[in-house]
Structure formats: structure tokens, C-alpha cells
Amino acid sequence: MFERLRFPVIVAPMAGGPTTPALVSAVTAAGGFGFLGGGYLTADALGDLIARTAELTAEPFGVNLFLPGAPSVADLSGHREHLLAEARRYGVEPGDAHWDDDAYPAKLDVVVERRIPVVSFTFGLPSVDDVARLHEVGSLVIVTVTSPEEADLAAAIGADALCVQGFEAGGHRGIFADDPVHPAGGETYGLLAALRLVSAVTDLPLIATGGLVHGADVAAVLVAGAAAAQLGTAFLRADEAGTQPAQQRALAEGGRKTAFTRAFTGRPARGLVNRVLAERSADAPSAYPDVHHLTRPIRAAAAKAGDPEAMSMWAGQTYPLAGAGPAAEIFAKLEREAREAFSQASKRLG
Ligand SMILES: Cc1cc2nc3c(=O)[nH]c(=O)nc-3n(C[C@H](O)[C@H](O)[C@H](O)COP(=O)(O)O)c2cc1C
């Protein structure tokens, strides 16, 4: 599949707004590939998103789904108490914290019915039956992994390729289970280390993701054996992206660090440091998606007010180097830089 791409760059699924049909179709037209983010949507909304994308491009595109985790037993009362002050600041109430399955079964039905050619998963493993249903309709199945242990498990359920996520990545870590005491695999790997360790346990094609923002980074992961590179943050300020204006401004201004936090959703994710992230990360419970529902009205009200201090502003570590403009131009620049970096590196190798 990815060998077919003129330049193997994939625009990441960025659920919650940033990855739009226009962004996916622009990157596809430029010679890359894109995934729609199916997370947080109802099955009907995902169907609409797929239909709108299909109106913009006749080329294949992918869909990404969140796997539901186990309901959490964490106590949310302390986090809720602190968030009350944030909610009052924006004139809203915290949301109703509850577990749900993100409408996963109904959304899986949608991607099977629409015969989406490539379906990627994050936050865990689809069942062997789900994989079989997708294979029956000709879909490729990709599982996001962050360690060789997760790669082994994904290979065992019949994944066709793996998306290897390094800790540089913006947004949620794809870890299968968020156990704050015993994190998956016991280690948090950077992208090159993850790629190398995963390559040692499987021959499946690997998509590298996390912190790739320059064509030289794309060239580097291709040299390291990846079949393709998946970039999120590099496209957050593309003209076609649906990133919130307040986040776009914060990204453009630079000056903020990024950090992991459970404060906004209850699962670790990397975002720009703001007030809520700085004040609430230390004690935020591991309870996804309960905390996502709890903070939703606050995040929405802050975004509406154009205030970056209480929004989740997911971004990778290299965000200060990501530019703005039409996605096709960002893509073309990545390609020029990759070819130049590759030719310089081959000269250095002699
Ligand atoms: C705003 C944002 C939203 C994201 N949403 C998703 C998502 O819905 N599904 C997913 O698998 N990954 C998601 N990711 C992670 C990306 O797939 C990818 O791992 C990450 O963007 C790579 O790091 P980079 O942002 O430095 O390029 C998201 C990343 C960002 C920045």
C-alpha cells in the first residue's frame, strides 16, 4: 500500500477537529496519504466525514478508531473539585464524568460497510474477529504501538502494519493500557529506539510517528527502515486543518514547552503547557474517557473565548519548527528537504 505513494508521508488522524476532509484530500492529491480521525464522533458523524472526504478525492484514504479501554476505578473527586474554579472562570459547569466505548462497535460497522481500505487503531488491540471482518472487505489493519511488547501483541492478532509512536509525538500516547504504576513495557521510548526495538520483533511494515517535522526527519526514519512517516503537528497550521484558532496562535507564537498530561482526558497526551496542564497534571487521575467528559465544557468554553490556558493543545515536541500554509506546500517542502537530506547523508557515508 505505502510503496504506491510518491513520497511516503501520511497526515495523522487528529480527532477533535484538526484533520479535516480537506486536509486529507490535499495531502492525498500531493502524493501522500491521510487518515480521518474517527475518535469522539458518533457513527453517523463518521459516516458523514467519510462521505465528505470521498466527494473531495477519488483516491483511497484511511480511518482511525479509538479502542475502548476498561472502565476506571479512579477517584475523580479531587480533580473535579479543582476544575470547578476553571469552569466558573468560563461560566460553565464541569461535564458528567462517565465511561463509554466511543461508539466503537457502531463505527467499526461503518468502516466495514464503507470498505475503508486502511483502518488504523489506537489505545489497544482490535479483536481477532474485528480484524477478520476488515480483512474480508479488503481493508488493511494498522495498530499503533509504543513498545516491542505491544508490537508482539499486535502482530499476533493479524495486524498488517504497525504505526510506531515515539514519545516525541503530539496527542495521546497510543499505549494499550494506561497503568500509571506499571506503564506498558515499563519504558517510554523515543521514536528511533522504538523503531529499532520493534523491527527486532517483527517483519511487519512500520509507519514511524512522533516529532517528525522536517523532510530530514522523514528521510531519517525511512533510512531506519520505516515504510512511511506519519506527521501530525507538521500539519496543524495547514490552511486546510481545523485546529482551533487559539491553538494555532499559541503554536505560531512558540515559547511554550510541551509535556505529557492526563489532566484533560485521563490518558497521557502531549500538549503545549498552559495553566490547567501546569496546575493539574501531577494529580490527574488515570480515567479515560471519564476525564475527557469532565473537562469538555471547560475546554470548549476556553476555546470559544480564544483563551489557550484551559484548552488541550496537543502538539509534538518539535512544534516550533512547523510552519503554516497550504498542505500541498508543506508536503512539497518536506519532500524537497527529504531528498536533499538523503543526498547529503549519502555523501557523508561515502
Ligand atoms: C492534535 C492531535 C490529535 C491527534 N489525534 C489522534 C487520533 O485521533 N488518533 C491517533 O491515532 N493519533 C492521534 N494523534 C497522534 C498522531 O497520530 C501522531 O502519533 C502524532 O501526531 C505524531 O507526532 P507529531 O505530532 O509530532 O507529528 C494526534 C496528534 C495530535 C497532535
Distinct small molecules = flavin mononucleotide
- What is the beta-strand fraction? 5-15%
Strand line-up in the sheet with most strands: 1-2-3-4-5-6-8-9
Strand tally is 11
Q: Detail the poorly predicted runs.
A: none
Principal-axis shape equals: globular
Secondary-structure element string: EHEHEHHEHEHEEHEHEHEEHHH
Structural class: alpha/beta
The name of the CATH architecture is: Alpha-Beta Barrel
- Helical proportion? 25-40%
Number of domains: 1
- Enumerate how many helices there are, as a single number: 12
Oligomeric grouping of the chains: single chain
**Looking at CATH, which topology would you report?**
TIM Barrel
CATH superfamily membership: Aldolase class I
The overall pLDDT, averaged over residues, is: 96
Whole-Å distance between the termini? 32 Å
Can you tell me the CATH class? Answer: Alpha Beta
Q: Any idea what the radius of gyration is?
A: 19 Å
| Main pleated sheet | 8 strands, parallel, barrel
